[in-house]
Input
Amino acid sequence: MSEAIPPLKTHSTKRLGWLIHGVGWCVLLTFPFLFITGRGSDDLTWNGYLRFVFVIGSYIIVFYVNYLYLVKKFLFTKQVMRYLLGNALLIMALIVAVSFLLEIVLSSEERYFPEPEGWDLVRFFAINMLSYIFVGTISVAYKMTGSWYTAESERKELERSRSEAELKNLKSQLNPHFLFNTLNNIYSLIAISPERAQEVVHGLSRLLRYVLYESGQPFVTVEKDLDFIRNYVELMRIRLSGHVQVTMSVSYTSSDLLIAPLLFITPIENAFKHGVNNTKTSFIRIEITAADKEINCRIENSYFPKNEGDKSGSGIGLSNLRKRLNLIYPGKHYFSYGQKENTYYCELKLCQL
Output
């Protein structure tokens, strides 16, 4: 199962974001009351607080002009010089506007904006420019973070949709492969024993019920999937001769443990396909255990490779299984198979998601 994916931004989340903005600015506007009031001669005055509000208001303008327009218009389109020029003009205009506005509204004899002589004017603009640049930088960082989060959410949503589509395609290939093999078994059994063929058809109906109605779910209980495996092995056992030894051991401590359906059928099919010889002693050993949120499956069989002309199911089974495991259990599975002398093995371990 793929990792949890955060939902894309909706109108409600955007409204929540703007509400957080508003609360943040309101908290900032209350700072003078928290840090100045009650300190004797430094008590907050109306003129002092109004001066603070005008300055914070200019910061808000810089923040949102960057956030809503300049970053998207120039910085995201790699027009860095235009972005810097736009910010410089905006900041200088706000410094001048706030300075004259404070002198006009407050009617103070003391000039807020220094006389245009010496280095005082340069120092005044430099100090104020730094504070506005700091606010603009915060706005850029906030905008970048939000844009990255949105792009990452969209990417993960597309990846999840693509993975689901690929998984459905793999399962649609798997089910016909399983059915074709079983129908071939029934066809060969009809000529040998019609009674046994009837039993196989009845067993096949139980298997089809699981494949058609249960395996469509992303996950099923381990009890249902292992019951399917038992029925399949019993169905295959009917057509085997006496010199083929099939042993199966299945155990689980919790029937509620969930598993992706039809993962074990592919290696078991391969075991019956390549592990049985009509003239030689053959064996198939299947062991599946499920405990402590871990499922282990090991299959061993005598190995009688088919000739090159046999193309039944070639290129579909194990490659599809590996793809399904990578999609459903990324980083939470172990899958290994190969030949050791005259024995072929397949080992599959799954961790509960």
